[in-house]
Amino acid sequence: MDFGYEGKVAVITGSSKGIGRETAGQLAALGAKVMLVARGEEELIRAREEISQHGEVDYIQMDVTAQDAADEIIDGTISRFGRIDVLINNAGGSFAKPFDEVDIPDWEQDIDLKLMAAVKVSKAALPYLKERGGAILNMTAVLGKTPPASSLPTTVSRAAGMAMTKAMSKDLGQYGIRVNTVCIGLIKSDQIMKKWQNDAPELSWEEYSRLDKHNIPLGSIGDTHEAANVITFLCSDLASYVSGAAVNIDGGAGHAL
Hints:
- The chain is 43% helix and 17% strand.
- It is an alpha/beta fold.
- It has 2 domains: 9-187 and 223-249, 3-Layer(aba) Sandwich (Rossmann fold), CATH 3.40.50; 188-221, no CATH class.
- The chain has a 7-stranded parallel sheet, with helices on both faces. Strands 5-7 form a two-stranded antiparallel sheet.
- GO terms for molecular function: diacetyl reductase ((S)-acetoin forming) (NAD+) activity.
């Protein structure tokens, strides 16, 4: 099966570990040239070494919220690879508190990281994506669709990312640019691994992952490759008629389509 990645170039923010790292590996193995972007250079170097065994990859050490970061990321990618076909806005984190405990700087920082960084990098990449069409994938979260209590500001930032995705898909389709989002639920990550070690170190990961308290219909916390599989498909030629979609990757745990 041909995913159509051969010779294409993908930029992935937040790609030194987790879902971004796994997706980078899959795209490189399918023939894409991949530019990794993240803050931590040690992890970037490690990721590049591992992925380069399967395909062509390089990295840019960058905080996506820094001034001029978007231009530096895109300019660096063009200088290295000469084109951009896929942009995956994956940089983010989890910051969730009750409304009355969230300070204004927390709001600003969260929105800068999860929403405005994606806006800026997408804008910087747009002239190159317009040349031959391509795909933008914005990472959001399933809780952005049905925010629970004490989930601010992260659910608001993610909900805004979904709205942005739909609006972008309407505006950019004329250029052959598809824009989608994946709405992540509980997926194995550093944060969840730390929670496991803090909450139930006596359990194996498999036992902890399958606890009833997670309320996952498919029975366990997802793995990074399961999320990366969906992202890889959505950004590929196989999904050439999919745009403006918000796809849940949550084992059925979400309460909205």
